[in-house]
Specification:
Strand content: 5-15%
CATH topology of the largest domain: Arc Repressor Mutant, subunit A
Number of helices: 5
Strand order of the largest sheet: 1-3-2
Order of helices and strands: HHEHHEEH
Mean pLDDT: 90
Radius of gyration: 20 Å
Number of domains: 2
Number of strands: 3
CATH architecture of the largest domain: Orthogonal Bundle
Helix content: 55-70%
Low-confidence stretches: none
Structural class: mainly alpha
CATH class of the largest domain: Mainly Alpha
Shape: globular
């Protein structure tokens, strides 16, 4: 019986460790103040130019937005499209199909956030 308990504990520890590592990997890619906001705006708005994107995300600086877009592009969440045939050259950013795999996660976070806000407000009354 003791050996069976030990195996279960070790199995659970391995599963827990694996889950922690997976969550850490996910958060490394999308964590921070701006990344999810950028992804959400691009998913909702479609093709968005840099200045418009900056206007749609209050408080983000051009430098930070540029760096976050590069990170998101590197990780396959954003595609940078250059329309060189137009004058002046137009650069747009779009969310990739891969970024849409985050949609259920974003919706769950959104619902949880609304529920949490309600809970906190109720506790304050």
């Amino acid at each position: 019986m003791e050996n069976q308990d030990q195996v279960c504990k070790n199995g659970c520890k391995a599963a827990c460790s694996e889950n922690l590592a997976a969550v850490e990997d996910a958060l490394y890619v999308i964590a921070g103040k701006w990344k999810l906001k950028i992804i959400i705006v691009l998913q909702e708005m479609g093709n968005v130019r840099f200045n418009e994107l900056q206007r749609l995300i209050p408080g983000i600086s051009a430098r930070v937005l540029s760096n976050e877009l590069k990170d998101l592009e590197l990780n396959g969440f954003v595609k940078r499209v250059v329309h060189a045939e137009q004058m002046p050259v137009v650069v747009e950013y779009i969310s990739t199909d891969y970024s849409h795999t985050l949609k259920p996660v974003i919706m769950s976070l959104s619902q949880w956030g609304k529920t949490h806000k309600r809970k906190i407000k109720e506790e304050m009354l």
